[in-house]
Amino acid sequence: MGIKEACSEIVKITREKSPLVHNMTNYVTVNDCANAVLAIGASPVMADEIEEVRDMVSIASALVINIGTLNSRTIESMLAAGKRANELNIPVIFDPVGAGATPLRTKVSQRIMSEIKLAVIRGNMSEIKCVSGLASATKGVDAAEDDAAEDSGADIAVNLAKKLGCTVAITGAVDIISDGKRVCRISNGVADMSKITGTGCMTTSMTGGYVGACGKAYEGAVTAVAVMGISGEISLEQSRGTGSLRSGIIDSLSNMTPEIFLSRVKIDEESY
Amino acid sequence: MGIKEACSEIVKITREKSPLVHNMTNYVTVNDCANAVLAIGASPVMADEIEEVRDMVSIASALVINIGTLNSRTIESMLAAGKRANELNIPVIFDPVGAGATPLRTKVSQRIMSEIKLAVIRGNMSEIKCVSGLASATKGVDAAEDDAAEDSGADIAVNLAKKLGCTVAITGAVDIISDGKRVCRISNGVADMSKITGTGCMTTSMTGGYVGACGKAYEGAVTAVAVMGISGEISLEQSRGTGSLRSGIIDSLSNMTPEIFLSRVKIDEESY
Amino acid sequence: MGIKEACSEIVKITREKSPLVHNMTNYVTVNDCANAVLAIGASPVMADEIEEVRDMVSIASALVINIGTLNSRTIESMLAAGKRANELNIPVIFDPVGAGATPLRTKVSQRIMSEIKLAVIRGNMSEIKCVSGLASATKGVDAAEDDAAEDSGADIAVNLAKKLGCTVAITGAVDIISDGKRVCRISNGVADMSKITGTGCMTTSMTGGYVGACGKAYEGAVTAVAVMGISGEISLEQSRGTGSLRSGIIDSLSNMTPEIFLSRVKIDEESY
Lengths: 272, 272, 272
Hints:
Three copies of one chain form a homotrimer.
Chain A: H1 3-17, E1 20-24, H2 30-39, E2 43-46, H3 50-58, E3 62-66, H4 72-87, E4 92-95, H5 103-115, E5 120-123, H6 125-131, H7 145-148, H8 153-164, E6 167-170, E7 175-178, E8 182-186, H9 199-214, H10 217-238, H11 242-255, H12 258-264, E9 267-271
Parallel strand pairs in A: 1-2, 1-3, 3-4, 4-5, 5-6
Antiparallel strand pairs in A: 6-7, 7-8, 8-9
Helix pairs in contact in A: 1-9, 1-10, 1-12, 2-9, 2-11, 3-4, 9-10, 10-11
């Protein structure tokens, strides 16, 4: 079974299994993350209080950590939940939002990567370069133009994946996903998706759903990135601007089937 | 005047009175709660800082407490606001989101029920069973399938309503609302509403608006649950997926009239 | 160049420059604020942790402070970020949400106005009267009817603008913007915009984008208020209720051009 077929199967089983995804995420895009997780057939729960996160993650199939609006209280909760997830072999998906934009975000990202065993890291090129220890320009939470044009993305993804023993997903005009041995390039998606806040965060939370359902970090991440790209394409065809594009992406996610996935996906995989 | 007519009258007077609803709710669905409250003609305000919640609730017609993303800071604020509301005879509506999912949520729910006199509790079957002290399965913030199939819902609602001297609303495929003497069953709504986050939270916040306008806990809760169900039905007819279903629910709420209500509502009431 | 032409130019250059706007705002409308900032061509970032706000604001072109859901932690962060912005000559836009509704909001607003040099204050008539030290009715976060009918709006705006040396924007049925010397009246917009939460907050965040791009507080604020009003008008033509009105406003913002702006804007400016 090739990667396309494997991913289309994950689309299907996620609706059957409806895995619970514990999201510790930012208050900007959290509603879209919850609706995206529901739209792909999984079940979201949000909890960030230190007194309950260990309990909540224990009943979840995946934990998503997103530092988009981190604070001193939630940083400790994220670390506690991540460690508990590790003890229970529950996959942890990490989104280093804005790593490189401030020293705090860079430092917390490094702490999360060193103290928690991650299944997947997903970010834009500026963020992934930053957490890889490479020089990166940055502009808040969006990828810098110089970084977006980076042509050594596959090397960066492979190296970080090998270093951390996890899957790395770099999303951009062309998405690159690697587990250190395989490299996937996905060319679905439309430029206007960068004009909506949260397409990255949603992809990370959806990764939690897909990995939680199938138990495979690399395949789950590829599925999430491709499904988001395809949904953006379908939505753009019917949108009148970025407001309806956003709403339409959730529509398209909720309508996604293995058949639509296979007919639309543009994916290229190679060994590395 | 029967229950249908009483509720249709509440739909009308809420638009005339525009009661202020103080919402202490979660950061996942808060925007939808605010827009739902506005759509039914009431006015929402959100405040959770302990230094101001007593003042804010004092100018409100109802207080909504929703523990969807509770934390140690907001728990204390919720208790303080609830006690002040009690002193001023302002109705308090409680949504025990995720009760049973973690010990913290169960414990905080019990504390709120014992320290604050409630007008209405609204939850799904898993949550209401949990706060009733009954064994319940749970899966994050969604009702467990076993619980959703519970056929003793009326007994559970009546017993909790009598115990706390308040109205209990259990929402699901068929909604059950009781004040301990009357039991209402509402069969409006569509299954896809469970694929959007926040339909429950919105119903709770709308209950604040309706109860705040009419001063009657049971009738206000029945109105909120029925109006949400009807709005889901109307929205589904025009939706292309869960994104447009969500946006369409707010549309339908904003267009709701006593006439639409009476022509659509499916309600069955009996004494108990 | 008249004010209309100046504003239409700002619409254009904001898309070219894509200024970073650091938003410290409430969790109710934050997603709409982010999408509105993106829709006008600017780039939003949200950060409220005291350990990083000085760093984040340093890379931004404008700072937006909105006290819609203030708490003791974020108040300190707002003050710290504002002072750092002042040191770096980065314009600070302030939205005193709910000033007058509680003593805390009034007190914090006064503290922000006295400790931080502001570029723009934007609020409804109740809020601006409150922060001007005038008696104001208030109802949560919406303008009181008595205040909305205030006919001395220009005097109030001019006096506060002179006192603080900043631009004051009072939004309502007719919007009034003044820098102490000039007064602009804008009569775009539709009444239904008050039935959506966040049109005010979005206007404030958009002011951050426009002022950040052009460096002119008065012209930037006029542009934001007019663009929001025009977008509301366009959206209403295609909406089916307040849910689609909300989504349509983001659509219209994302489609805004200097040409649409010039053909639609209803603006009247006089010296004072």
